[in-house]
Design brief:
Blueprint: H1 2-7, H2 10-28, E1 31-41, H3 67-80, E2 84-89, H4 98-110, E3 115-119, H5 125-133, E4 138-140, H6 148-154, H7 160-172, E5 176-179, E6 182-183, H8 190-203, E7 207-208, E8 211-212, H9 229-242, H10 252-257, H11 261-267, E9 272-276, H12 300-312, E10 316-318
Parallel strand pairs: 1-2, 1-9, 1-10, 2-3, 3-4, 4-5, 5-7, 6-8
Helix pairs in contact: 2-9, 3-4, 8-9
The chain binds 5'-deoxyadenosine.
Residues 50-51, 142, 144, 182, 211, 213-214, 216, 253, 288-289 line the site of 5'-deoxyadenosine (5AD).
């Protein structure tokens, strides 16, 4: 792996992407699974050094959608055909325990045909269990980096062992579980990627979220160089070849750094796209990094435009739940 990553030429990379895409075609066909992302709170009690909504960034205008607002977004999106909602937020103490469970429960009651994915960070095992029991199906908790020392530096006050314990707990509870890492953080080395990839192969998750680092000026990493798109695409292809059945998003961060980045991601083996459903007024304040691109699909027109564009690029927009292992050949 190290040899491959050290010496890869652009021809090699194209070949890698072709192989990854043709494997994806074999397993999933040309389908791109659509998820609706709701960034429901940018309050966060953590201080991840790369992240724009870290606790110590006093310039962020904090917001928190009410349960009613969230359910309204879900209802409109459900009418448009969305069948997966991804609730993402900082580690907000308001939506930490009971309120989070109650929200998930209501979503499950109102939209029983729809999958709920959570991306809400670390919680106690008991809360994870309650969330699962009350209808949450999937959980994204990126490991961020598998190097314990680097993990410590990037996440002041957090523990790598705790992170791993949370990830293991989620999987044991039967969540479809997603891990992943950031590409191109300062000081990151090729050997780090190798370790991240070997961890991913070994853990065999249902989903993997990776994307380039994008600096945010109001963080300790403000002004640092961004991650690069080519490396991200190479990582996507390797992950696809390591885990043929994995659900692999072409992430917003990738699309932010490169025009048509989502499609480059699909061509490299990605097969999931998250669309932002966060109401305007809030979504501008959910800046993990700067310059976040948003495809506006708040009405059916935007969604149809996207559908046409995806089809023009040779893919098929798929609004079904798209659970792990379904639709496989
Ligand atoms: N650049 C790229 N990705 C980031 N994330 C947070 N901040 C940044 C940034 N500045 C990622 C983390 C987190 C996910 C929700 O967003 O990996 O797990």
């Amino acid at each position: 792996m190290l040899y491959l990553l050290n010496d890869i030429s652009s021809d090699d990379a194209s070949y890698l992407h072709e192989r990854a895409r043709s494997l994806t075609d074999k397993v999933f066909g040309r389908k791109i699974y659509i998820r609706g992302l709701i960034e429901f709170s940018n309050y966060c009690s953590r201080n991840c050094v790369y992240c724009g909504i870290r606790k110590d960034n006093k310039k962020v205008q904090r917001y928190r959608l009410s349960e009613e607002e969230i359910l309204k977004v879900c209802s409109q999106a459900h009418d448009l055909g969305f069948r997966t909602f991804v609730l993402q937020g900082g580690e907000d103490y308001y939506y930490h325990n009971d309120k989070m469970v109650s929200l998930v429960k209501k979503m499950n009651e109102l939209f029983p045909d729809t999958a709920t994915t959570l991306s809400i960070g670390e919680r106690d095992s008991k809360i994870y269990a309650d969330l699962y029991k009350n209808g949450a199906n999937r959980f994204l908790l990126r490991h961020e980096t598998i190097d314990k020392t680097r993990y410590g530096k990037l996440h002041p006050g957090m523990s790598f062992d705790k992170r791993m314990e949370c990830i293991q707990t989620l999987r044991k509870l039967n969540f479809q579980t997603g891990v992943g890492f950031i590409i191109g953080l300062p000081e990151q080395k090729i050997t780090d990627y190798v370790d991240d990839l070997m961890f991913i192969k070994d853990f065999n998750p249902h989903m993997v979220g990776i994307g380039p680092f994008i600096s945010h000026k109001d963080t300790p990493l403000g002004g640092a160089e961004n991650g690069d798109v080519e490396t991200t695409l190479i990582m996507l292809s390797i992950i696809r070849l390591l885990l043929p059945k994995v659900l692999l998003p072409s992430t917003t961060a990738l699309n932010t750094l490169s025009k048509d980045g989502s499609y480059s991601g699909f061509n490299a083996g990605a097969n999931v796209l998250m669309l932002n459903l966060t109401p305007s007024g809030a979504r501008e304040k959910y800046n993990l990094y700067e310059g976040k691109t948003i495809v506006d699909i708040s009405d059916g027109v935007g969604l149809n435009v996207l559908k046409e564009k995806i089809e023009k690029k040779g893919y098929i927009l798929d609004m079904s739940r798209g659970d792990y292992s379904l639709g496989m050949h």
